[in-house]
Amino acid sequence: DQQVKQNSPSLSVQEGRISILNCDYTNSMFDYFLWYKKYPAEGPTFLISISSIKDKNEDGRFTVFLNKSAKHLSLHIVPSQPGDSAVYFCAAMTTDSWGKLQFGAGTQVVVTP
Amino acid sequence: EPEVTQTPSHQVTQMGQEVILRCVPISNHLYFYWYRQILGQKVEFLVSFYNNEISEKSEIFDDQFSVERPDGSNFTLKIRSTKLEDSAMYFCASYRSSMNTEAFFGQGTRLTVV
């Protein structure tokens, strides 16, 4: 089941610069897209979400962009901080199966000083 | 800040044994989920639970698995006869309502079947 794909397993970025994480999906029925962050030995933590009727949602340093025609979304983190080093998961769900998240494989972000 | 609590953090069991993984969701949450992540693989949905019954389950969630909310606070996942391939991190998650997109996850239980 490859409905949600994160093709970059890792990303290294310098502190203060922008981190851009990408995610592609195949199911056009998805209504919500979410980003989760995960530290080792912890559960995923919700970061930000976007409805399929929007193309951008911003929350502090985090902005998610959605391109429905391309079935692509991205997460921008500006500026990147050392505490942002974690695994980031893209996830999606439909209204019919509310709460049932389809996850991508994750991208390991390392923010270097 | 309220949080979802899972116990134990690590469980080692022999193949064929029964295990019960426990979760205490946030008190005013109504929708409950179990996910698992096999090492090196994606986090995958197992089951959703609302109003004391299963709402949806994945193909993984076969007759060996069951869930219940025995006392209105704990939410448990039982695996009747564990297999080696059940070794994974199991995450419990909950939502306050169907209007929220934010799922709160527990820290996970690492299940090792030997």
- Beta-strand segment tally of chain A: 11
Tertiary shape of chain B = globular
Radius of gyration of chain A: 13 Å
- Beta-strand portion of chain B reads over 45%
Strand content range of chain A: over 45%
**Rg of chain B from C-alpha positions?**
13 Å
Q: Considering DSSP H and I runs of 4 or more, what fraction of the residues of chain B is helical? A: under 10%
Q: Could you say which overall geometry of chain A the principal axes of the C-alpha atoms support? A: globular
Which sheet architecture does the biggest sheet of chain A show?
Answer: 6 strands, mixed
What order do the SSEs of chain A take from the amino end to the carboxyl end, as H and E? EEEEEEEEEEE
Which spans of chain B have pLDDT < 50 for at least 5 consecutive residues? none
Number of helices of chain B: 0
Quote the average pLDDT of chain A.
Answer: 95
Task: Give the low-confidence spans of chain A.
Answer: none
Please give the alpha-carbon distance between the first and last residues of chain A.
37 Å
Using a beta-carbon cutoff below 8 angstroms, give the protein chain pair with the largest interface and the number of residues from each chain. Answer: A-B, 22 and 24 residues
Main beta sheet strand tally, sense and closure of chain B: 7 strands, mixed
Distance between the termini of chain B: 36 Å
What structural class do you assign from the helix and strand content of chain A? Answer: mainly beta
Assembly type of the chains comes to: heterodimer
- H-E string of chain B: EEEEEEEEEEE
